[in-house]
Amino acid sequence: MSLLDETRALLDRAVAETRDARLARARGRLDEPLRVAIAGKLKAGKSTLLNALIGEELAPTDAGECTRVVTWYADGPGYTVTSYLKDGNAEARPFTRRDGAVRIDLGRPADQVERLEVRVPSARLRRHTLIDTPGIESLSADVSARTTAFLEAEGERATRTDAVIYLLRHLHGGDVRFLEAFHGDDGAGTPVNAVGVLSRADEIGGCRLDAMTAAGRVAARYATDERLRKLCPVVVPVAGLLGAAGATLREGEFRVLAQVAALPLDDILELLLTADRFAAGGDDRRRLLTRLGLFGVRLGVRLIHEGDVSDAAGLAAALTERSGITELRQVLTTHLEGRAEVLKARSALAALDECLPPGSPLVAGAERIRAGAHEFVELRLLHQLRSGRLPVADDRRAELDRLLGGVGGTPRDRLGLAAGAPAEEIADAAKSAQARWQRLAEHPLSARDLRTAARAAARTCEGILAGQNQQG
Ligand SMILES: Nc1nc2c(ncn2[C@@H]2O[C@H](COP(=O)(O)OP(=O)(O)O)[C@@H](O)[C@H]2O)c(=O)[nH]1
Ligand SMILES: [Mg+2]
Predict the structure, then answer these.
(1) Cβ of 93 less than 6 Å from ligand 1
(2) Which CATH architecture has domain 34-239?
(3) Which residue from 373, 379, 304 is spatially nearest to 339, judged by alpha carbons?
């Protein structure tokens, strides 16, 4: 029986025995998309990134009332908004859309609202539900507290999110502390469910045209930062604003840029020197600046001026390509969706722990699943490995990380093979890795923890081989 099936069966039993609504919800979520929260400081670019990921202008990006409430964006048959209240009730809420953004009429003070749920027909949201959170350390301590409570790996709310995208604008002591608090130390809150984004990457170095390259260097440096790497193993530079604009660019916006691009080069350079100069040219330009940012405007004018793009569709594609959003989607697929099963099971089992007394047979059942399922063993080992608690030589560390699924869950990811590697190559690589780790597991001089880890790595290889045989 698969991990997910085993977890479903246990949750079904728990719901039948207890009739606890919280457990029924946890059971239901096992069949829903992975829940991914977007977290970071106020104005880190969370709502903008969410729009870029969905490819639609949905989340409001100013500091209106609703940006203070945790808001879920999930796939659904039509556009609906539901407000879940702290008193346990839920109500449908009216909303309007201004420039695409969903403006919700809360009808009551924000502090009475637990969360909002926006349903949108979206193929992207079928893969994962995205959760927009208010900023941490934001203007009001209350909003900040609400976000932290929502994300912290404690209390009932821990089961609300399976994974998190954490936005960093600059590496900041507060960010690291926040991440440390979020990831518990027990293997329950492992860093394997966090992906880092160096956000607003286009603004790095004064919005010059090489900003994204510079951002790539900064992100690479973050990825080697010891403290950060333990908490959030990948950091992708992303300009969410460019991604959102690329997905929603309008003809009129292209025309405004084309007009500027038609000017003599000296005039263009003069005009694009600062945001203020460009914006002084009228409302259209001011709006465009809000939509694309100074970098996006400069890039757009340059591409049109040099004849690299000649219409709105071409410019939209160029903005999307530069935004880094495609790379981020790729990382989400390998790091989070590839691990969706174990992440969802983990949340559901955590709900059992929270809702039932420690000694109960159902809680014991949850513990048995966690102890027995190889996916959980891998998750725990990955956590130990990354927090420096496994005595592994450096040359083996990277291999073990990869084998345990650290850079993606497919056999090719785990064995470090190219995307198109044929089945025989996978089988050969798995066999030799299996033999290597088995030897280490049996080696009398290996430390005990290392032997345990090596046994698990060998088991992973066996799993890959078994899967190959089934296919072949
Ligand atoms: N230049 C630039 N500005 C951005 C980017 N992402 C967000 N912003 C701007 O930063 C401000 C805050 O963005 P928002 O998404 O509301 O941040 P949140 O508070 O984290 O949700 C808005 O004015 C956005 O237009 C980006 O990638 N590049
Ligand atoms: Mg926001």
Answers:
(1) no
(2) 3-Layer(aba) Sandwich (3.40)
(3) 379
- Kindly list the domain boundaries of the chain, sorted by start residue: 34-239, 242-323, 376-471
What is the 8-class DSSP label of residue 306? T
Q: What is the pLDDT of residues 193-239, one digit of tens each?
A: 788 999 999 999 888 899 999 999 988 888 777 777 767 778 899 99
CA–CA separation, 334 vs 72, rounded Å?
Answer: 22
SS3 242: helix
Q: Shortest CA distance to 238 belongs to which of 90, 13, 40?
A: 40
Query: What phi and psi, each to the nearest 5 degrees, are found at residue 218?
Result: -60, -45
Cβ 230 vs Cβ 386: under 8 Å: yes
In sequence order, what E strands does 250-335 have?
none
**How many A from CA of 203 to the centre of ligand 1?**
10
**How much is the pLDDT for 155?**
37
Ligand 1 pocket, 61 CB below 6 A? yes
**pLDDT one-digit tens code per residue, 165-186:** 989 887 666 666 666 655 543 3
Nearest by Cα to 59 from 104, 106, 121, 112 = 104
Q: Which of 45-59, 143-157, 217-231, 445-459 has the highest mean pLDDT?
A: 45-59
Q: Which of 102, 241, 320, 325 to mutate to test the pocket of ligand 1 (most atoms within 8 A of CB)?
A: 241
pTM: 0.87
In short, whether 46's Cβ falls inside 6 Å of ligand 1 is yes
For residue 207, what pLDDT is reported? Answer: 84
* pLDDT given for residue 227 in this prediction: 74
**Using a 6 Å cutoff on CB, does residue 212 contact ligand 1?**
no
Question: Cα separation of 285 and 296, whole Å?
Answer: 12
Ligand 1 close to Cβ of residue 293 (< 6 A): yes
DSSP count for the chain of H helices, then E strands: 22, 11
Q: Rounded to the nearest 5°, which phi and psi values hold at 262?
A: -80, -10
What strands lie across the sheet with 235-237, from one edge to the other? 90-92, 80-85, 113-120, 71-75, 128-132, 34-39, 163-168, 194-198, 235-237
Token pair for residue 166?
A: 């954490």
Higher pLDDT, 424 or 152: 424
Number of neighbours of residue 398 by Cβ within 10 angstroms:
14
Task: Name residue 341's amino acid.
Answer: E
Q: How far is CA 379 from CA 130, 243, 365, 386, 416, in A?
A: 23, 32, 19, 11, 18
Is the pLDDT score of 440 beyond 80?
yes
**Residue 363 CB-half CA count within 13 A:** 9
